[in-house]
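The authors assume throughout that readers already know how a fold can be written as discrete tokens. For illustration, here is how one protein appears when written out as sequence plus structure tokens.
>
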Amino acid sequence: MSRLRILLYGDIDLNFMDGSAVWLASMAPMLALSPNIQVDLLLKAKEQNTHLTGALKEIPNVHCIQPFNKFSHQILSKNARLSVSEAVQIMQQLHEENNYDLVIIRGFNLVRETMKYEMFQKITVPYLTDFKHDERSTKEERADLKRVYEHFDHLFLQTKETKEAFKKLIQVDGDKIQLLYPMIPDNHIQPTFSNKHFRLIYSGKFHEDWHTEEIISVTKKLAARDSRIHTQVVGDKFQDRLREREIQLRIKQELNNTQAIDWVGAVSREDCQKLIEEADLGISWRSAALDNDESVELSSKLLEYGRLGKPALVRRTKMHEALLGKDYPLFVETEADFIEKTEMVLRDEDLYREAAVKIYDASQYFTFKAAYDRLKTFIWSFKKAPIKIVFAGHDLKFATMLIEYFKGNPAFEVQLDVFSSHEKHDEKHSKACLEWADVIFCEWGLGNLVWYAEHKKEHQTLIARLHFQEKDLKFLRHVDMNKVDQFIVITPYMLEEFYNIFQIPRHKMCYIDNLIDAEKLDLSKQENSRFHLGICGILPARKRVDLALDVFEELWQENKQYKLFIKGKRPEEVSWLMARSQERDYYKAVSERIEQAPWRENVIFDPHGNDIPEWLQKIGFLLSPSDYEGSHVSISEAMASGSIPIIRNWKGADTVYQSRYIVSAVKEAVTAVKEGKWQKADVEERKKYARQKFDRKKIVKQVETLIIEMVQKTV
């Protein structure tokens, strides 16, 4: 699979800080929240400052491409900015070099130019903002928009209001539209929500609709009424009529000479955040022509103020009411409203906190993390290469169905790294698997996990599935938990055990049941199966086959039809077990007991094998008399076949299985067998429980979802 590669370009000069520039400087870090995404940001202009690009260069998986360095020989522009035709030619060359999965562009003229290149049609998502959203849209513009909509498979629009306006404008269903709301950096520190300095702040462009001159005027009036009140102004970009020389000079003079105004000019986004943090009240008051009930775009600056815990003055519109609530206390229409609300909120601590909390809570929907979480499924849909997954471990029998599923899934490729013991493995093969893999799935957390945690690469995902024996062994103590993305634990009880013993962070653990093939297990029962007890696996001694014999013996004494079927390897077949004197003595005693008993002919040993569904056809009751277990898969298999489980109350049994099947003594087990329910509805209830909880169809999807989440997750 490798990384998802994204080319990002906007017809935007990042030397000037305005909303579109901030958008572009936000998209890159938002996408780069996933270490498995590589973002190449092509710059439009020669860098004259690093106000917006400086922080981007600190992000490992964001690469800012300077076209006037790398592509200077093919740029004809005499100025320091790319034309749209030059930009798309460079995009073409970059795509030929890097084979991007996804291209995101902004700028209507840029979109038109990109449409001339067939290679971009399927992989490009344009972000459209620069068009009229109402009756002011010309016939020519609507035709252009329709061509864009028909040409690309997807496009971004800013809000649901923009989407509705767009649909109405060109009469389309809007199915191709993805919403790309304004976004703001994540805030990791809770604001204090308190007024400190009586300081207002405006950050943004200078434009009539942004009330530049009105803000200067109202600041003077506020300062005359209360000398503590002052306004900090951030920005240096004059637009439209305010760019006219005389107007611009006059405004600059007022900004510089008004005692209650501190004009800091253009600063980096990070420095702007610091200035907002030190301020008390944001100014997002714009003209009614811009902010009204028909408005379809949301100001990112308003969200910036809210993110940092600052209430903001903003015009009342339907969109702002939906965002902040109709009762938000700082809606302003006129200069008089501005003065009244400013004085009120700066003097009333409770009102200040109320307004600040409302806007802060609203802003959390628009953080980089929230934006990525909304878009990740869409973004990753452009990655067509399969995810390469290695299953590693000494015993993969419980993972067989998982491996089969992923081998048959075209979205994945699978390799196996089978260890010869808990620790021993072919290191050359393991290294080859490591070089190949996107995801490493360690079945058991033993030496396999220690090795892969030590050697995994930064972009790789490491998942471990823990069972039971790990808690009594050394290996998890030698695992760097920071290198493991997720631990799957097979019972809720074992999750708590692993947390208590190894302090595995809870957020890195999830509970997913062991899986069975319920369909294969659903076979008809043989005659007399109701008199047949079964135990599957009697090694080692903790499996307590002696208790199974106790239950069987009591039943046999009352009814000679009862039989006990013991399936699995016999002790003498396992050399390491026979090397332990205590285990050897235990099984010798069990063997002698059987040989000397009058019921010995009714105890049948069935060999170890993959014929569990057929074996269960003759089993009415599956015994689980162990001292302790992980989840004991045989129980879920038996239930799927319709058998009744008889489960000794080993720790954690009640977190996986129904209490009606759990007993605490031999007498209880005997009674449970005698009172076993075999009505059709009872049998179906057992099968249904197993099918709904443990079936492979469900579990493989849970594991697949987890893997995809881990591949796509943020840092």
The first helix runs from residue 19 to 31. The chain has a mean pLDDT of 94. The domain at 199-366 is CATH 3.40.50.2000 (Rossmann fold).
